[in-house]
C-alpha cells in the first residue's frame, strides 16, 4: 500500500501533493479507477523485473540478462457503473466511458447479436465480472468473465461411479462407466471420422502446395487446419462429459499424458496434432460446472497389459486397435486400456 501511494503521488497532483511528473497533463481527466489500474500494472512489471534480475545475479549471470519491457500491451478493465454500463434489456449494446480527445464521455457501442444471445441463454443469473478490453487483428472486443458457485461431489471412493477415458488417435476416446467392485455399467466409442477426414484432406492439400510453392505462403491453409483441429478437440471433450453425465458419474479419469523428446515415425504428424491436453482441460472445465471431479493416473502399461491379468498383449499389425491376450482371446486394445485406467484409479 505504501508503494502504491508513493507511486500515485509521483504522477497525480492534489491539493496537498504536487506531482513530479506531467502524467495529469498528458492524460487529462483520466478516471481514477483507470489510473490506479495502470499504476498497479506498472508496479507489478517493475517488481517482476527486480525479482528476475536478483535471481539471474544469484544463479550465474551468464545466460540472457532480464530486461525491463515498457510496452506490455496491457488492456484496461471497464469497472461497472463508473466506466461500463449495460444497455437496455434485450438490446445488443453497452456504454463505455471513452476519451474523445477533449473529455471522457459515455459512448454507446454495439455488441454482436449472436454473442449476446449466447450470454442470455447460458449465463443469465450468473455473476459477471467487469469486462476487459481485448485487441485482436486490429479490432477491439470486450471479454466478459462469469463466476458461479458449484459444489463438487463428495462421494466416498468405494461408492463412486467413474468414467474412465482412454484418449487415442485412431479412435478419439473410449469411455467406460465403472464401479469400485469392477462392475462395468456402460461403454462407448467416441469417434468423429468426418471431421478427421476433412482435416487430413486439408493436410494433403498443404503438402502438395508446399511442394510447389514453399512453406512461406501456406499460412492461411495452416490456420484453417488448426481451427478444424481445435473444433475437433472441443467436440471430443463435450461428448465425453455428456456421456459421463448421462450415467451420473462422480469422477472422470484420464491418463497423465506427457510426451517428451523428439517424435518420429510414420504417425509423427498425427501425434503433433493430437490435442490430448486441451481435451483434458476442456473436459475438466465442463465437468466442474456439472459438479463432477477429474482425476489423472499414471499411463504406464495401461495399453500394454490385458485387463484380465493374463499379461502383455500382442498388437494386431493389420488393425492396430485390436490385440491378442496371452490366453488367445481377441479384444479391443483401447477398451482394455480404459478398464485398466479405471482399475488403477480405484
Defining key terms:
elongated, single chain, 3 domains, three-stranded antiparallel sheet, Nucleotidyltransferase, domain 5, 346 residues, alpha+beta, 15 strands, five-stranded mixed sheet, 39% helix
Question: Which shape, going by the Cα principal axes?
Answer: elongated
In angstroms, what is the radius of gyration?
27 Å
Derived from helix and strand composition plus strand pairing, the structural class reads alpha+beta
The main sheet comes to:
5 strands, mixed
The name of the CATH superfamily of the largest domain reads YqgF/RNase H-like domain
CATH topology assignment of the largest domain: Nucleotidyltransferase, domain 5
Describe the protein.
The strands form five sheets. Strands 10-9-8-11-12 form a five-stranded mixed β-sheet, with helices on both faces. Strands 1-2-3 form a three-stranded antiparallel β-sheet, with no helix packed on it. Helices cover 39% and strands 20% of the residues. It has helices spanning 2-11, 23-26, 32-59, 113-122, 193-213, 219-246, 268-273, 276-289, 333-345; strands at 84-86, 93-99, 104-110, 127-128, 132-136, 139-143, 146-147, 162-167, 173-178, 184-190, 251-255, 293-297, 314-315, 322-324, 330-332. It is elongated and about 90 Å long. The model has no long low-confidence stretch (mean pLDDT 92). With 346 residues, it is α+β, with helices and mostly antiparallel strands. It is built from nine helices and 15 strands. Helix 1 (2-11) packs across helix 3 (32-59), helix 5 packs antiparallel against helix 6 (219-246) and helix 6 (219-246) packs across helix 8. The chain folds into three domains: 2-59; 84-147, no CATH class; 157-345, 2-Layer Sandwich (Nucleotidyltransferase, domain 5), CATH 3.30.420. Strand 2 and strand 3 form a beta hairpin. 16% of the residues are buried.
Amino acid at each position: 500500500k505504501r508503494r502504491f501511494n508513493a507511486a500515485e503521488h509521483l504522477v497525480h497532483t492534489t491539493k496537498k501533493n504536487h506531482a513530479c511528473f506531467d502524467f495529469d497533463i498528458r492524460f487529462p481527466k483520466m478516471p481514477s479507477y483507470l489510473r490506479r489500474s495502470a499504476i498497479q500494472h506498472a508496479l507489478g512489471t517493475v517488481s517482476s523485473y527486480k525479482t528476475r534480475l536478483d535471481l539471474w545475479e544469484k544463479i550465474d549471470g551468464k545466460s540472457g540478462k532480464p530486461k525491463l519491457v515498457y510496452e506490455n500491451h496491457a488492456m484496461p478493465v471497464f469497472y461497472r457503473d463508473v466506466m461500463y454500463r449495460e444497455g437496455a434489456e434485450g438490446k445488443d449494446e453497452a456504454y463505455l466511458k471513452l476519451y474523445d480527445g477533449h473529455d471522457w464521455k459515455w459512448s454507446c457501442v454495439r455488441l454482436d447479436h449472436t454473442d449476446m444471445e449466447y450470454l442470455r441463454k447460458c449465463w443469465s443469473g450468473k455473476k459477471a465480472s467487469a469486462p476487459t478490453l481485448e485487441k485482436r487483428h486490429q479490432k477491439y472486443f470486450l471479454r466478459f468473465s462469469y463466476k458461479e458457485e458449484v459444489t463438487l461431489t463428495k462421494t466416498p471412493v468405494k461408492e463412486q461411479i467413474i468414467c474412465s477415458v482412454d484418449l487415442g488417435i485412431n479412435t478419439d476416446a473410449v469411455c467406460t462407466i465403472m464401479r469400485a467392485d469392477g462392475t462395468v455399467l456402460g461403454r462407448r466409442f467416441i469417434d468423429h471420422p468426418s471431421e478427421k477426414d476433412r482435416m487430413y484432406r486439408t493436410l494433403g492439400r498443404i503438402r502438395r502446395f508446399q511442394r510447389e510453392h514453399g512453406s512461406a505462403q501456406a499460412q492461411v491453409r495452416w490456420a484453417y487446419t488448426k481451427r478444424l483441429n481445435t473444433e475437433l478437440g472441443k467436440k471430443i471433450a463435450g461428448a465425453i462429459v455428456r456421456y459421463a453425465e448421462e450415467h451420473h458419474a462422480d469422477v472422470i479419469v484420464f491418463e497423465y499424458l506427457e510426451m517428451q523428446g523428439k517424435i518420429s515415425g510414420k504417425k509423427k504428424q498425427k501425434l503433433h496434432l493430437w490435442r490430448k491436453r486441451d481435451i483434458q482441460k476442456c473436459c475438466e472445465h465442463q465437468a466442474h460446472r456439472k459438479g463432477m471431479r477429474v482425476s489423472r493416473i499414471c499411463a504406464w502399461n495401461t495399453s500394454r497389459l490385458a485387463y484380465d491379468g493374463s499379461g502383455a498383449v500382442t498388437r494386431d499389425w493389420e488393425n492396430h486397435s485390436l490385440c491378442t491376450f496371452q490366453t488367445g482371446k481377441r479384444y479391443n486394445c483401447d477398451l482394455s486400456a480404459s478398464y485398466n485406467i479405471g482399475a488403477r484409479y480405484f
